[in-house]
Amino acid sequence: MTPSKKDDQKNENQSKRTDEARTVRKIVGITLTALVLAIIIVGVSGYVYINSALKPVDPSDEEKREVKIPIGSSVSEISKILEKNEVIKDSRVFRFYIKFKNESGFQAGEYQFSSAITMDELISALKTGKVMKEPVLTVTIPEGKTIDQIADIYSKKTDIEKEEFLEKVNDVEYIQTLINQHPSILSEAVLDPEIRTPLEGYLFAATYQFFEESPSTTKIVEKMIKKTESIVTPMLGGIKEQGLTVHEAITMASLIENEARTKEDRKKISGVFYNRLEDDMALQTDPTVLYALGKHKDRVLHKDLEVESPYNTYQNKGLPVGPISNFAKNSLQAVVEPTSSDYFYFVAAPDGEIYYAKDFEAHKQLVDKHLN
Predict the structure, then answer these.
(1) Is 342 part of any domain?
(2) Which top-rank group of organisms is this from (predicted)?
(3) SS3 category, 114
(4) Is residue 8 part of a domain?
(5) How many CB atoms lie within 10 A of CB 234?
(6) Domain limits at 183?
(7) Is 269 in the same domain as 187?
(8) 3, 132, 315, 364: least surrounded by Cβ within 10 Å?
(9) Residues 328, 245 share a domain
(10) For residue 2, what pLDDT is reported?
(11) What is the pLDDT of residues 134-164, one digit of tens each?
């Protein structure tokens, strides 16, 4: 082989080795990148799961259930009992949390826990052997109630005077502290001077249990606000998709609450409201007139529609300045998930049945048939 051929062969071999080395480096680089990404994904997923497992199973479920911890139960056995009774989400995470906090000395006994209990509250109760007592006071706040009506209910169930309750929920300084504590649902919008009562609509309709004979107004309000927060939070994404603020969504939910009884009708009426808002039509919903008047009437008269008020949806386009009452969960769900239709009108018959129409003439016929 001539020297030139030897050189060519040498160069060719060297080129091959260089290509092979480059390929190996690429494979190693891709493998390491994939490995790092996998580690990051697993780490993030693990963090999200653990963080979720450390939170209450259901913050909105305060119903107490009896949980029996037998004498001599190990931490592992206690963890499994708590998970089985839906007091915690994951027994393993609970055990790791206990170890991390260096907690021990759990007591046997018959407890009453709810799915809303926090991890630290649970640990404290188990350590002290504190058996949760039956509630001393139970108060049910129905759907569609105003702040004034809620204050009246509490005045009859507790030592709190109605005027005292109303004074507290109208205290601007106090409302500002609540806005700071619950920014996901409360905003400066509730302090609009045209709003009759800042917290109207924000005290959720539910049954509340208290473990003291005379809870303060602030404790009552805080409990109710937290309940509202637990209901609204899962729907924040849907509210945003509809192009609404939380205040607007709660306002709309209060209107729907007072217009319909069934879940299906609430979703249909929500669709009607969206149609009218999109066409720049007044909502013309009677419950807003009654709220503006400040009194209940079996039937709204034509002269009532003239009342001057930022709540009167016959005189003002768009949503009223604020909610007109509290609401049920499915009323807010109707805001987030309306039933699409071509309807722009509806009329509620005395028997509760609701009839829908696409135009005013058809609506007028329904009014003549079912109301006159």
Answers:
(1) yes
(2) Bacteria
(3) coil
(4) no
(5) 13
(6) 137-232
(7) no
(8) 3
(9) yes
(10) 52
(11) 788 999 999 999 999 999 999 999 999 999 9
The answer to whether residues 268 and 196 belong to one domain is no
Q: Using one digit for the tens of pLDDT, what is the confidence trace for 350-371?
A: 888 999 999 999 999 999 988 8
Q: How many CB atoms lie within 10 A of CB 173?
A: 6
Predicted pLDDT at 46? 55
Assess contact for 325 and 145: CB atoms under 8 A.
yes
Residue type (1 letter), 328:
A
DSSP-derived letter for residue 137 is E
Question: What CATH number does residue 114 fall under?
Answer: 3.30.1490.480
Q: Which of 37-41, 88-92, 245-249 has the highest mean pLDDT?
A: 245-249
Among 346, 342, 339, smallest CA distance to 363 is for 346
Which residue is listed with tokens 């493998």? 31
CA–CA separation, 237 and 254 (whole Å):
19
Q: Which of 117, 105, 18 is nearest to 62 (CA)?
A: 117
**Residue 217 is assigned to a structural domain of this protein:** yes
Residue 42 has pLDDT above 70, yes or no: no
How does the average pLDDT of the chain come out, rounded?
A: 88
The answer for 321, left when phi > 0, alpha when psi is -120 to 50, beta otherwise, is alpha
Residues 363, 281: contact at Cβ < 8 Å? no
Q: How many domains does the chain have?
A: 3
Which domain-ending residue is among 181, 211, 232? 232
| pTM check: above 0.70 | no
Asked whether residue 101 falls in the same domain as residue 144, the answer is no
d(CA 237, CA 243): 10
For residues 200-220, give the mean pLDDT: 92
Question: What one-letter code names the amino acid at 162?
Answer: K
Q: What is 193-254 written as a DSSP string?
A: TT-SSTTTT-S--SEEEESSSS--HHHHHHHHHHHHHHHHGGGHHHHHHTT--HHHHHHHHH
* Dist CA 138 CA 117 (whole Å): 18
